[in-house]
Structure formats: C-alpha cells, structure tokens
Design a protein that fits this description.
Radius of gyration: 31 Å
Structural class: alpha+beta
Number of strands: 17
Strand content: 15-25%
Shape: elongated
Order of helices and strands: HEEEEHEEEHHEEHEEHEHEEEHEE
Number of domains: 3
Strand order of the largest sheet: 1-7-3-4-5-6-2
Distance between the termini: 18 Å
Low-confidence stretches: 22-26, 408-423
Number of helices: 8
Mean pLDDT: 84
C-alpha cells in the first residue's frame, strides 16, 4: 500500500513469551493494550527524612511512621544519620555490647560486624510501628538521638481507576502529558481484625495447605490482590484431557469486571495471581489448573399478559431482572448461589421464573435460543460452562422472534430451517 508506505516508520513484532515450540493452531494471545512510550505505574507516595522520634535509651522503644500502609522494602531508617537495618524478628538480633563467643578460639575478639548486627529494627507495615531492641537482642537508640525515616506508602482499592483517570503529576516535565490507556489493577484493602479472627478456625484446620475441596475453596477466596466472587473446585477434572487422579481444576470468577459486568471473566493477570497464591500451598503430587468460566450465549424472549391495574413497563422490567438473576453466575439457580455447573438451561425452568414475577397474569410463551439464535428446549451446560444471557426481550402478547433478538431478521417466508437471512456486515470507513 503506497499510502501506508509513505507514513511507515517501522514494524513491531509481538510474540507471546511461550511461543517457541508451540504449534500455530494452539498459539493464542489476548492483548488488552499495544502502544509505545509506556511505563509501569505504582500507587505510592514517597516521604523523605520524616522525623519519627527521638531516642530514649529505654529498651523496646517504639516509634510510629505517619503514613500507612508502608510499601514493602521501601524504608530507609537512620539514627543520628547512621543507617539501621530492618529484620523480621528481634530475637535473632545481636547484643548492643558485643561479647565474645565461648566457641571462638581463645584471643579472638568481637569485631565491628558484630556491633552492626545489633543496629536493627522491625516494622509493622500496616500500622507503621517501628520497634527497636532491648539491648540484649538488638540495640537501643541512644538517648536524645534523632530517628529519621524515608519510605513509600500507598495501596488500597482507591488505586484501581479507570482508563484516563491518571492525567497529571507534579513531577511531570513541562510539555509532556500522561494518561493510562488501560485500567489499573491489584489494589486491595487490608484485612480487618474481625475478618482475621474469623479465619483462625479454618487456618487451624487446613494449615494453609490444599488438601480437601474445602481447603481449595477457602484458600482461593482469600487470594490477596484480587476480588474473587466465586470458586468451584472440580477434583479429577482436566480441562484439556481425560479425567485423571491427582488433577484438580479450580474455576474462578472475579467479583467485578467492568467489561463484562453480568458475566465476569478473569484476565491473565487475575489467573496468574491466583496461581501464584495456590502453587506453594498445593501438595507435591497435585496438578492444579486455574480457569475462568466458558460462557455459553443464550437468548430469551418472553410474551406475557400483565395483571389489570399494574404498570406494564415495571412488570416487564421485573421479568427481565428475574431472568437475569436466575441465570447469573453469582445469584443464579433456584438456590440463589450462582448457576450450578453441569446444569442445563431449560425452557421450562425459565418459564417458571417468569410466571412467579409479581404482576404477571400469564406467560403466553417463552423462547429460548442458543448461540446461533435457534429455538431450543434446553441449552446444554458442561464442565466449565456457565450461561451468559446475551439478550432478553419481554413484551405483552406474543414473544419477540428470536431472529430479531439476536440481530438477524428472518426473511419473509423463512421458517427458520436454513432459509435466507439478513445479517449485519461490518464496513471499514474510508476516514476516521
């Protein structure tokens, strides 16, 4: 194309990381964004040389950072300008006054490294609490010493923003603009004390190991960094092969999905986060697969008669909401706990749901269509399948034809058995 060639600068090749050795028929990738001049963004704010307190010379001194939660590995703490080191447990710290180890060779004295091992502290990132030693296990900040800290803080769900929400920065050079072409992800709120107390019995039971079906469900639901709305555990089920011992497939559905609000789908980042949480907790002989649902499109058209005196529009909307709730992955089914796996979508069940809506005098007919819009008495649901209600129409009298509902109007004289149909065809415009 000569017009394109005049504006062409270069070609960019994008290849999945595991493409080598993969056959073309099995190679697939979902790209949420492709662009240039992009950089990773992290929800954090930096604090430099904050005065955390003054040394008292007392054992077990505690000071607090002003801003929380503190980002992991971001703290640089000094006492009178000398850096101290963060450790996990003060019980492993050395004494304030180095003493000779009785197992050493006679004449060998403690060196500077032994004194430095005592200049340590522990940090509670959620509360910002910094704790020093008691002199025997970790040194005490000298009386009157200046304790300063530089660190980063941030996190939480407020950092999960939509496209275009990040548009300005105090550190942005003049003449440059910034925006986020994709939504941010990964932010989560800290666990409350009440929620942690509720988890104690379960933790004592499974010891953070994936053994039983209940273990898989409970541990998956508390995956940090993602909101898991529903978990189903399928023992012995392999998503791409025959059933086998030692195989467990975990079906996960995110609680929120702005792109598919009624039928949430986990993206690759979501699945990777769950996998990273489950992998170190599984038994060595267990093969774990984490998958999202495979949604099966269904169309429903209902014709009703409304009870005299009732508002027809409100009743029609109530029928639609009832059908959406019944087919929902979270509130679906007669139990209201989400559409059950391997349970077919039956026309008779949908008919019963529509009949029970207040204000409906009679359901004249209900049409159930599959992905192609063909009328069906039932739509099969197998394995990881769940129904997705693509469109629903409710009107007084007879139901709307399924062909119109799915966007394909049946031509005159066509009985729906393969005759000519009018279908929408995408057209690429000459200009944008």
């Amino acid at each position: 194309d000569t017009d394109v060639a005049a504006r062409l600068i270069t070609w960019i090749r994008i290849r999945p990381g595991d493409a080598r050795g993969t056959t073309r028929s099995r190679l697939s990738a979902r790209l949420s964004y492709v662009g240039i001049n992009a950089a990773r963004v992290v929800q954090e704010a930096r604090v430099t040389n904050e005065i955390a307190g003054e040394g008292t010379g007392e054992p077990d001194q505690v000071v607090a950072l002003v801003n929380t939660p503190v980002i992991r590995d971001s703290v640089r703490l000094t006492v009178n300008g000398e850096p101290w080191v963060q450790i996990d447990d003060l019980a492993a710290a050395g004494p304030e006054v180095p003493r000779r180890n009785p197992r050493w060779t006679p004449g060998v004295q403690p060196g500077p490294a032994d004194a430095a091992s005592a200049k340590v502290y522990t940090l509670d990132r959620e509360s910002g609490e910094v704790r020093f030693g008691d002199g025997l296990r970790g040194a005490r900040p000298p009386r009157g010493s200046l304790i300063q800290a530089s660190y980063a803080y941030g996190g939480g769900r407020e950092g999960q923003v939509g496209i275009g929400a990040l548009s300005k920065s105090a550190a942005l050079p003049s003449g440059l603009r910034v925006t986020n072409p994709v939504p941010t992800w990964g932010g989560d709120e800290a666990e409350t004390v009440e929620d942690a107390e509720k988890r104690i019995p379960g933790f004592l039971q499974h010891r953070d190991r994936l053994v039983t079906e209940t273990d898989f469900r409970e541990i998956t639901l508390r995956t940090p960094g993602v909101d898991v709305g529903r978990v189903e555990v399928l023992p012995l089920f392999h998503p791409e092969a025959a059933p086998a011992e030692g195989v467990v497939t975990v079906l996960v559905i995110p609680k929120y999905d702005p792109l598919h609000p009624t039928a949430p789908e986990p993206d690759r980042l979501f699945l990777n986060t769950v996998c990273a949480h489950l992998n170190p907790r599984r038994l060595l002989t267990t093969e774990v697969h984490v998958h999202g649902p495979v949604y099966v499109p269904v169309y429903v058209s209902v014709g009703i008669d409304v009870v005299p005196g009732r508002d027809a529009a409100s009743v029609r909307e109530a029928v639609k909401e009832g059908l959406r709730a019944f087919l929902s992955p979270f509130t679906g089914g007669f139990e209201g706990a989400g559409w059950p796996l391997s349970h077919d979508v039956e026309q008779a069940e949908l008919f019963a749901v529509a009949t029970r809506v207040a204000g409906v005098a009679r359901v004249n007919a209900l049409l159930l269509g599959d992905a192609g819009g063909s009328p069906q008495a039932r739509v099969p649901i197998h394995d990881l399948d769940l129904p997705r209600l693509v469109a629903v129409a409710v009107q007084s009298g007879d139901p709307q034809p399924l062909g119109e509902l799915v966007g394909t109007a049946t031509a005159p004289g066509d009985d729906g058995t393969g005759g000519p149909r009018i279908v929408p065809v995408p057209i690429v415009p000459d200009t944008c």
